[in-house]
């Protein structure tokens, strides 16, 4: 007897967060958080201020260690893997508060992102021997021909970061994360503090890095219009717990999400808020 066709098999998750609990003393920042990130997807983590979004990012990238639960990357348990090793495995991230070296140039800041992958030893680097020279040349070529060109920051490559406006500093931080050669690019509020034009540029870069480079994106973001436009999957946190997850349309219509954001169960209010957030300037 023929078995009915049930469609293609589901993709194996690239990242699996399972029952993660994080506590600081007696205060629980995360409680039983779980979700999957599929390869090639854009997954957004949203929630009100204080919901635990950045704590979750810090746990995934290895800055915090959960008291319960597990984190798996490409099927490998990385719950106790140090942050530098996670970066080497393919988890690259930016930060909510810009964490660039302000006295260094744009190019030098970006080059630091590749540090985890360099094989040059101390002696090679000290005397700038053959391997060090080759790695430096390859690194610079990759950054200048791919990353700087991709993010349209060629005109500022030699500028000190401290001299750049906020929007360009956020773009440089994304460039440094891309220099880490990530399989998952973790962006913590990539458009926070940006004007509409800067936000549209960043949204385009996020879509392009997925489409052109095949990089999976996991982001925390407050801009609901951008989240709903870009994301394949949305995870909603409130008080450190997942209260909803699914497609943008599913999350947008979820009464628990409405209550978390608005304090009421009126889905029409949230939809009106989203329309306002995504409407062109000068329109109602």
Describe the structure.
The chain is α/β, with parallel strands linked by helices and 284 residues long. The protein folds into two domains: 11-90 and 182-277, P-loop containing nucleotide triphosphate hydrolases (Rossmann fold), CATH 3.40.50.300; 99-181, P-loop containing nucleotide triphosphate hydrolases (Rossmann fold). It is 40% helix and 21% strand. The protein has eleven helices and ten strands. The protein has helices spanning 53-61, 83-89, 106-111, 122-127, 130-150, 166-179, 196-213, 224-230, 248-252, 255-262, 267-278, and strands at 15-24, 27-37, 42-46, 68-73, 76-77, 91-93, 184-188, 216-220, 233-238, 241-246. The protein has a six-stranded mixed sheet, sandwiched between helices. The chain has a four-stranded antiparallel sheet with strand order 2-1-4-5, covered by helices on one side. Helix 8 (224-230) packs across helix 11 (267-278).
Integer count of domains: 2
Number of helices: 11
CATH superfamily of the largest domain: P-loop containing nucleotide triphosphate hydrolases
The overall average pLDDT, rounded, is 83
Please tally the β strands and state the result. Answer: 10
Helix and strand content put the structural class at alpha/beta
The CATH topology of the largest domain is Rossmann fold
CA-CA gap between termini? 59 Å
Radius of gyration: 20 Å
CATH class (first level) name of the largest domain: Alpha Beta
Assigned CATH architecture of the largest domain: 3-Layer(aba) Sandwich
What percent of residues are in strands?
15-25%
Unreliable stretches: 1-9, 120-128
The secondary-structure element order is EEEHEEHEHHHHEHEHEEHHH
